[in-house]
Specification:
- The structure holds two protein chains of two kinds.
- Chain A is of the alpha/beta class.
- Chain A is elongated and about 110 Å long.
- By secondary structure, chain B is an alpha/beta fold.
- Chain B has two domains: 2-119, 3-Layer(aba) Sandwich (Rossmann fold); 135-207, no CATH class.
- Chain B is 27% helix and 19% strand.
- Chain B is built from seven helices and seven strands.
- A four-stranded parallel beta sheet of chain B has the order 3-2-4-5, with helices on both faces. A three-stranded antiparallel beta sheet of chain B has the order 1-6-7.
- Chain B is globular.
- Chain B starts with a strand and ends in a 28-residue tail after the last helix.
- The mean pLDDT of chain B is 92.
- Classes of the chains: A alpha/beta, B alpha/beta.
- At the A-B interface, helix 19, helix 23 and helix 24 of A face helix 1 and helix 3 of B.
Chain lengths: 692, 225
């Protein structure tokens, strides 16, 4: 059905540009908004080796870049991905890979970077072995991230898939020497050992019993070692590990959990959502405070703390905390967990050049180390970073290793950058505000009792409504045919967002970064000079109508009624399809992405193909995320009705339904419409007879 | 800008009915701007004619469509010459000027007008056009504050307002502003009310010969004598 587009003028949206994997977020969010969740999952899987993992733990830089954030709140992209993964049936997907090369590749470490590298190397056809020191794969995904954030079942499924793809897994196999791997006939090695070594506070008494670093604590919990925790636990630090340690302590039974952080909440690097949830669960966060001394007294820890104050921002814009002299005070704890950062611990025998913060030094473009055939990436190179960054590094490593093994000069791809400006205040003013719809979360009293996932998955309606909020950055309208343009100013006058403007030379332009692809100008342009940047968008209605006409001709159902129905919102989810079936006549649906794209021509063509009635059904003006769509559709419909009346087609044969998908009367209204059409058919047949 | 209005589909269908192969021809300039005969309207009319034919079951007409940049200039019509052999008639959605140019270029093909050329005017908002000039050939706008009484006064009087102006509206159409009240207000605003105090003698329409022709070129004698 889809013809090859002859052009593609789409602009990379900010979400995609910011995603380290450059996933086609705009596309899959749009598919979710149409209820096409399996196709959404397909798009997700094309860009991400382990979407189910990202669905739980991604730090979603895409959401930070999302331009909807300039209007109200960004799209909940990660939660939508989770919905697609669950409802699209990701669990059932099986993957296979063929071995087409002889060169074996060893991957040292099975964190997200290692797993991603293995995934892509398998896809490229290389035999791959993953060496993991622990008993199970996953690296930080397994030993760092608590189970309530990433259910182990999810990780296990991805690992299983990797095994299906033919990756060799060697657990309990700490690698001590890389040369040994070369002796084992591995031709390339990817070192991705992570950053598991907790940094030290460097204060007196840090060696006391009851003081442990966050990474070690989480590792012990996650490997099922059940470390004993007391009732009163303190955590030092403000990152995600600190929050994870605090919430884990609560789940292990601690009653009082305090986080000591030396800066204020604004500077806290942990995910704001996580901070919020931790506070809900009862974690107390003491800001502007730092421990300076630890004393072990009768099995308890006496912590001397000092208050901090923030200095004026320095050249880098960061405010340095400084102790307030004489503000010392004491707190008593059973355990203290230090979570102020981690560093890699790369075995000396690897003979890799080590740089700042004990990280491995690599060429950032090729990931090569100081030794031939050895590549490195992940936290071991960058220091603690996000899962999505690690996945991107793993993907890059796979293609660089491929280049190396195939003796190719590495093709450095250009970084994908969004060239879209911010929304103007006047555009923002016109964009309908719809608050972000968060997925449900388990109540805090319930969730601290166990390690069950905190965040639940959207239901169908929630996901669709959230996805509908997308502004479709970069696929809006453009004046494609300058030669056709009659400079009539229709677009300038009718755009609800004032995106078209006259430039210095008096030529009409459409500001691509202010257009949200509502399509009104495309359908209204009298010269057919405006098109969507994505050509498929343009042809969709014609193609679908053609398709419907063909199928209807085969089925010979009478009377034929053609309905143009918006696929966004709940219209696309099948809820409506059920309603059509309930109605009695032969109703055929032409799916459209917003009724604003239905042109007069389409309505008339339906009659040309023998339809006895035509209707348009879309969200009502309150539900449609775009402005004025119903108004313009009705304008065109009225004109078509007038012209049709002049050739003897009764205006009653064309009707619009602006409905809520939940409208119970919809089937009834449709029945009335089909009944009316039936009557009209009888009358016109009678008239024909009379003429004879 | 020339403003035109589509004829009713009933009339269009009727004038097309004697012919078999009909080219629906749009014009990419004025009638595109006034939504009467641009590329989009061509395709809509094409669809409506097809639909009409499908319903009546008449002998088949074959409609095709095309749009040129400007029908009034015959150079733009050159592109149609290849098609001329295959068509029995042209339904022109251009203004009366376009129709006549077509008739001149294609003397063997009947040209059917699809629109009524209405007036010269402008649009202030989408979907609304107002007449602004009647091309009288004797512009007096300098004395009337940039508001044309010949066009915008229902009576076209030169010394207004008449006694029919009530509350700034015209007696002929209560929705319409009285052009002379507008002229008065604007001249007050400009401080040129004296222009309205002078009397304008009746114009002599006999001096205008129709059809008019405008020549700006000068006869040059290449011999130089």
């Amino acid at each position: 059905m889809t013809k090859n587009p002859s052009y593609d003028h789409t602009i990379i949206p900010p979400c995609q540009a910011e995603c380290p994997l450059h996933m086609d977020i705009r596309e899959y969010v749009d598919l979710i908004a149409q209820g096409r969740v399996m196709e959404a999952l397909q798009i997700i899987r094309e860009g991400n080796p382990f979407p189910s993992i990202c669905a739980y733990v991604c730090t979603h830089p895409c959401e930070d870049a999302c331009r909807r954030g300039q209007v109200d709140n960004p799209i909940a992209i990660r939660a939508l991905k989770k919905f697609a993964v669950k409802f699209g049936g990701d669990k059932m997907i099986r993957l296979e890979a063929e071995t087409t090369h002889d060169e074996k590749v060893a991957i040292v470490g099975s964190g997200p970077a290692g797993l991603a590298a293995a995934y892509y190397l398998r896809k490229l056809g290389y035999p791959v072995s993953i060496f993991e020191a622990h008993s199970e794969l996953g690296g930080m995904l397994r030993v760092g991230i608590p189970e309530y954030r990433l259910p182990r079942e999810v990780l296990d499924i991805e690992v299983q898939r990797l095994i299906q793809m033919g990756a060799e897994i060697r657990t309990n196999s700490p690698v001590t020497s890389l040369n040994l791997l070369f002796d084992m006939k591995y031709k390339a090695i990817f070192v991705t050992v992570g950053a598991h070594q907790g940094l030290r506070l460097g204060i007196e008494g840090e060696e006391s019993a009851g003081v442990v670093d966050g990474a070690t604590f989480l590792r012990e919990v996650n490997l099922g070692l059940k470390p004993p925790v007391g009732n009163r636990v303190g955590i030092v630090g403000g990152g995600n590990v600190a929050i994870d340690a605090a919430r884990t302590s609560l789940r292990l039974g601690s009653r009082e959990v305090k986080i000591l952080y030396r800066r204020s909440r604004e500077e806290m690097p942990a995910d704001p959502n996580e901070i919020e949830q931790a506070i809900e669960e009862g974690v107390e966060i003491l800001f502007l405070m730092a421990p300076i001394k630890i004393q072990s007294v009768n099995g308890q820890l006496d912590i001397t703390c000092i208050r901090m104050e923030q200095e004026e921002p320095d050249a880098s814009g960061r405010r340095r905390p400084a102790p307030v002299p004489g503000s010392e005070f004491h707190i008593t704890l059973d355990d203290l967990i230090t979570a102020i950062g981690q560093a890699p611990q790369v075995p000396k025998d690897f003979r890799l050049r080590i740089g700042r913060g004990s990280t491995i030094r690599v060429d950032p473009l090729t990931l090569t180390t100081n030794q031939k055939g050895i590549f490195a990436g992940g936290d071991a190179v960058t220091g603690p970073a996000s899962v999505i960054q690690a996945l991107a590094t793993g993907k890059l490593a796979a293609s660089r290793i491929d280049d190396y093994l195939r003796h190719r000069y590495p093709a450095i791809s250009k970084e994908k950058r969004a060239s879209m400006g911010d929304l103007l205040p006047r555009t923002i003013e016109m964009i309908r505000k719809f608050n972000r719809y968060e997925p449900p979360i388990r109540p805090s009293q319930e969730r601290v009792k166990e390690f069950m996932p905190v965040e639940l998955v959207y239901d169908w309606e929630g996901a669709v409504n959230e996805a509908k909020r997308c502004l479709h950055c970069g696929i809006g309208a453009e004046i494609l045919s300058r030669d056709n343009c009659a400079a009539c100013l229709t677009c300038l006058r009718i755009c609800p967002y004032l995106a078209p403007f006259l430039d210095d030379r008096g030529e009409i332009q459409i500001a691509e970064d202010q257009c949200i692809a509502c399509g009104i100008c495309v359908t209204e342009c009298p010269a057919n000079a405006i098109a969507f940047r994505k050509p498929q968008e343009q042809r969709r209605v014609d193609e679908e109508l053609e398709h419907v006409i063909e199928s209807a001709a085969k089925s010979k159902s009478k009377p034929l009624i053609i309905g143009f129905c918006c696929q966004y919102g709940l219209y696309g989810t099948g809820a409506l399809a059920g309603l059509w079936r309930e109605t009695k006549a032969g109703i055929w649906i032409v799916p459209v992405l917003c009724i604003a794209k239905v042109e007069s021509r389409h309505i008339v063509n339906a009659f040309k193909a023998g339809a006895e009635g035509v209707f348009i059904a879309g969200c009502d003006q309150q539900q449609c995320p775009r402005e004025n769509t119903a108004f313009w559709t009705l304008q065109r419909m009225e004109r078509s009705k007038k012209m049709l009346a002049q050739i003897g087609i009764e205006p009653e044969r064309v009707q619009a339904f602006n409905l809520h998908a939940s409208d119970k009367n919809l089937a009834e209204a449709l029945d009335r419409f089909t009944q009316k059409i039936g009557e009209l058919c009888l009358v016109s047949a009678f008239k024909k007879e009379m003429k004879k | 800008m020339i403003v035109a209005e589509q004829k009713s589909m009933e009339e269009i269908y009727r004038i097309c009915s004697p012919y078999e192969k009909i080219l629906i021809l749009g014009c990419g300039t004025c009638v595109t701007v006034c939504d009467a005969g641009g590329e989009k309207e061509v395709s809509i009319i094409h669809s409506v004619l097809d639909a009409a034919q499908a319903r009546t079951g008449d002998k088949p007409h074959i409609f095709s469509e095309y749009t040129v940049k400007r029908q009034c200039d015959i150079e733009f019509l050159e592109a149609l010459k290849d098609k001329a052999g295959e068509i029995d008639a042209i339904l022109s959605l251009g203004c009366g000027i376009g129709v006549q140019s077509l008739a001149e270029v294609f003397p063997d093909i009947p040209i059917l007008p699809g629109v009524n050329t209405a007036f010269m005017g402008a649009s202030r908002e989408w979907g609304v056009w107002d007449e602004r000039c009647v091309a009288c050939g004797d512009c007096r706008l300098v004395d009337t504050g940039g508001i044309c009484p010949i066009t915008r006064c229902a009576k076209g009087i030169l010394n207004g307002p008449c006694a029919g102006a009530k509350g700034g509206k015209c007696e002929a159409n209560k929705e319409m502003d009285c052009a002379w009240v507008l002229i008065y207000q604007h001249l007050v605003h400009l401080g040129h009310l004296e222009r309205m105090r002078q009397y304008y003698p009746p114009r002599n329409f006999h001096t205008i010969l129709r059809p008019r022709r405008l020549i700006i070129k000068t006869e040059i004698n290449p011999g130089g004598k």
